[in-house]
Design goal:
heterodimer, A: mainly alpha, B: alpha+beta, 2 helices, 23% helix
Chain lengths: 174, 119
């Protein structure tokens, strides 16, 4: 990896981390509900710079955020890491298999869905092992994930458009 | 276009899922409190009481009242279990303390159990 890539990953991870931290300040009606604003950065990185860089940004963001919050290697960290890796992986596969089928919103929706299902599965296997609460929470989580995935997807779409426009103008003037 | 189809599908599946779960899962009649995967207490849902439960990292108090259950005075840092409030079905899970409080039916209502669903 070139040093320019490393610099870019560091910068993007810092943005993702800032959004992750900012999100914790927003009061939520349900305590475990998260918007997942950092996924705006993951998705933008994925579309503009590719899968490897997006995965690096996710890994750095989840690890550093858990160290700052103090949940490193705890149950919350395991769920965040599992959801982050699998969500990013799903979005990466989707973009590389059929790049034109879905726009950023569709990719974000799939990412949110896989992220939530991965977390549920991990929570079930590692901590809870009770099927009834899982059955009750699954459709609720899909619904919430679809709404937050939509918001993040629309935001990423705007960001990607404006970044592309920015780089076009730069290239034209150069 | 594909984005909209996906959005509509996810919304439909989740809403149908919520309706399905509401319809299929029986309302509970019994509260079972599990610590680290082992059942420690079982109480009928229609008798009011409160119980102090010890977990590996602290304690919490479970209150049963008016056929509903809630957690009060949890010793965990984020108190998610307390914030969940009263429930009459499903469960409350305290992850740091490995305690789960599950409301379930102690008898299978006829023809409405999950086992009966096929296809």
């Amino acid at each position: 990896m070139q040093s320019r890539d490393e610099y870019r990953i560091a910068l993007l991870a810092a943005y993702a981390l800032a959004l992750h931290g900012f999100e914790n300040l927003i009061p939520m009606p349900i305590p475990w509900l998260k918007i997942g604003l950092a996924n705006i950065i993951t998705l933008t990185t994925l579309v503009l710079f590719g899968f490897r860089q997006a995965m690096m940004v996710t890994l750095i963001r989840v690890t550093l955020a858990s160290i700052f919050i103090g949940s490193f290697l705890g149950p919350g960290f395991i769920l965040s890491m599992g959801g982050g890796i699998l969500g990013t992986l799903a979005m990466g596969i989707l973009v590389s298999v059929s790049p034109r089928l879905f726009g950023p919103v569709g990719v974000s929706l799939i990412g949110a869905f896989v992220h939530n299902m991965a977390q549920l599965f991990l929570a079930y296997v590692l901590f809870i092992q009770r099927i009834e609460p899982m059955i009750i929470i699954t459709p609720i989580l899909i619904l919430i994930g679809t709404m937050t995935g939509l918001v993040n997807g629309l935001a990423a779409d705007l960001l990607i458009r404006s970044l592309k426009k920015g780089s076009d103008t730069l290239q034209n003037t150069a | 276009m594909a984005d909209r189809v996906l959005l509509a599908t996810l919304l439909l599946v989740s809403l149908l899922g919520i309706v399905f779960v509401n319809d299929v899962l029986p309302h509970g009649t019994e509260v079972s409190i599990e610590v680290e995967g082992k059942v420690m207490y079982r109480y009928p849902l229609d008798t009011d009481r409160s119980v102090k439960v010890e977990g590996p990292h602290g304690f919490l108090t479970v209150e049963i009242k008016n056929k509903k259950v809630r957690v009060i005075e949890a010793s965990c840092p984020n108190k998610l279990c307390e914030k969940q409030g009263w429930i009459s079905r499903g469960g409350i899970i305290c992850l740091p303390n490995r305690i789960s409080i599950v409301v379930r039916g102690n008898e299978k209502p006829e023809g409405r159990a999950l086992d009966a669903v096929t296809g």
